[in-house]
Design goal:
This protein has three domains: 1-46, no CATH class; 71-277, P-loop containing nucleotide triphosphate hydrolases (Rossmann fold); 283-453, Ribosomal Protein S5, domain 2 (2-Layer Sandwich). Helices cover 27% and strands 25% of the residues. It contains twelve helices and 21 strands. It has helices spanning 45-49, 76-82, 102-117, 130-139, 155-165, 190-207, 228-232, 280-284, 331-345, 370-382, 408-417, 447-453, and strands at residues 7-11, 17-18, 34-38, 91-96, 121-125, 147-151, 169-173, 211-216, 235-240, 247-255, 263-269, 272-275, 294-301, 304-316, 324-327, 352-358, 390-392, 395-396, 402-403, 422-426, 440-444. Strand 13 (294-301) and strand 14 form a beta hairpin. Helix 5 runs parallel beside helix 6 and helix 9 crosses helix 10. The structure holds adenosine-5'-triphosphate (ATP) and magnesium ion (MG). Residues 96, 98-104, 127, 139, 268, 270 line the site of adenosine-5'-triphosphate (ATP).
């Protein structure tokens, strides 16, 4: 017999509860973020009781900790992003766009882990039938005798399966399809997602079984459901990739057991996700340094750094007013850069057509792209190629001065990770920037000085 559930309103962003609907959350300031839900605290005494084990404050020096043991999943790129493997009892949230390959990655990890551990691994699917998962498993050769699959969305049933099977790892695909029968709201709602995640995580913590929870992302790119979901888990992994066609990038945006700077790179093939060990290959395959007019930029998109190629083509124009076409860059900024090149660096462009393009359909609107665009144009105008394995990074001002950009260290680290060995950057003025090992920084005060240095304008 269920007790009468108490209805509260909860903020989708921070989880703050209020007895009535509010237009603005008093805790986090988000607008229109309140949704109605059932106060799970009022109806879940049985599960909450699990937490009520007597506790006792202890001196931190006297706490016995056995150290964090790690269990490799067998997928090197995944282990690297996790910080060395799965930590017992940890909860990992894997998020990504529809169709990016979340189920593929988790199924492959489940297979490898089951084989390595020789213990059961449970794959709970709420989106597909067991038959559909089997078809995928056949294609991916994931048919380990230790790999179990169950099509289930009821939280209590899942918890029972986990208890009975005692798997070494549990995958929940996806949290938005799971529901707790004691909550009247629909699967995917704030309360359901939070309670189902809490129920699964609590079981993982108490049994020492790691759990990987798959989560969908919203159009804005955040994990669907409450923001609190990200606080509840130990690690948040993001699987990204549409811009690289077959390539998929795995990053940690939160990790309680390791850093968040690691990048895992995979290639999606017919037989599944294949690890790309030398990530620089993605880029260097297509990047041809024997051409003039190509400059590489480590672009930052949020917390993510992508290396993109900025290409320029400068050619004589038969027309009175030569054409300028810019793709992937801010139009006004690109016009400004051409004016700066002409006036401050002495590159004559007024009678020439100029085309600028960011390869791969990527849109780069940040000013950090200025230097790469300027070098690409100067390189094409002079038909002088740019130095090999070099990235360009810096904002160019109207006086031709080069200004510093955000996330410099992360961009340099990413460039080094992808095989580049030199960066042309703004002059460092006390910023705490370390050149990665074996990496050379060419610091510039202004654009003309930089172009002279690489023989793109006469000194
Ligand atoms: N037969 C196939 N051959 C090659 N690649 C395939 C094949 N079937 C699927 N794929 C690839 O796998 C991707 C879908 O992978 P997966 O189902 O793991 O994604 P997902 O992130 O779990 O999607 P969803 O959000 O729908 O659950 C497809 O976009 C495609 O790239
Ligand atoms: Mg899926």
């Amino acid at each position: 017999m269920s007790r009468k559930a108490k209805v509260v309103f909860a903020c989708r962003e921070c989880g703050h509860n209020a007895p009535k609907w509010l237009g603005r959350c008093p805790a986090c300031g988000a607008w229109n973020s309140f949704v109605e839900e059932v106060d799970a605290g009022s109806i879940k005494p049985s599960r909450r009781a699990m937490l009520n084990t007597p506790s006792r404050p202890q001196k931190i020096s006297e706490v016995t900790a056995t150290g964090t043991t790690r269990m490799a999943t067998g997928i090197g790129e995944l282990d690297r992003v996790l910080g060395g493997g799965l930590v017992p009892g940890s909860a990992i949230l894997l998020s990504g766009d529809p169709g990016i390959g979340k189920s593929t990655l988790t199924l492959q990890a489940a297979q490898r882990f089951a084989e390595a551990e020789q213990r059961p691994v449970l794959y709970v699917t709420g989106e597909e039938s067991a038959e559909q998962v089997k078809l995928r498993a056949e294609r991916l050769s994931c048919l380990s005798g230790h790999l179990y699959v169950v099509a289930e969305t009821n939280l209590d049933a899942i918890r029972n399966h986990v208890r009975d099977l005692a798997p070494a790892l549990c995958i929940v695909d996806s949290i938005q399809t799971m529901y707790d029968q004691e909550l009247p709201s629909a699967p995917g709602s704030v309360g359901q997602v939070r309670e189902c995640a809490a129920g699964i995580i609590m079981q993982a913590k108490s049994s020492g079984m790691p759990v990987v929870i798959v989560g969908h992302v919203t159009k804005e790119g955040t994990v669907a459901g409450p923001r609190t979901l990200e606080h509840m888990v130990d690690t948040v992994l993001n699987f990204e990739g549409e811009k690289f066609q077959a390539y998929r990038l795995l990053r940690a945006s939160k990790n309680r057991f390791g850093g968040t700077g690691e990048l895992g790179v995979f290639e999606m093939r017919q037989e599944g996700l294949v690890e790309v060990e030398n990530a620089s290959r993605i880029f260097l395959d297509e990047y041809d340094n024997s051409r003039s007019g190509c400059a590489i930029l480590p672009a930052a998109e949020g917390t993510r750094v992508l290396l993109v190629e900025v290409q320029a083509l400068v050619s004589p124009s038969p027309m009175q007013s030569p054409r300028r076409r810019f793709t992937g860059l801010d139009q006004n900024r690109a016009h400004m850069l051409l004016a700066v090149l002409e006036r401050r660096a002495g590159i004559r462009l007024s009678q020439l057509e100029v085309y600028l393009n960011v390869v791969g359909g990527v849109m780069v609107e940040e000013p950090a792209a200025d230097l790469a665009a300027c070098f690409a144009v100067a390189s094409s105008a002079n038909e002088v190629k740019l130095p090999p394995a070099t990235v360009f990074l810096g904002e160019v001002g109207l006086a031709g001065e080069i200004r510093t950009v955000s996330q410099m260290q992360a961009r340099l680290d990413e460039a080094a990770k992808l095989g580049f060995t030199q960066a042309v950057v703004p002059r460092l003025r006390g910023e705490n920037i370390r050149a990665p090992a074996g990496f050379k920084l060419v610091q510039l005060g202004n654009l003309r000085e930089g172009l002279e240095r690489f023989y793109l304008v006469e000194g």
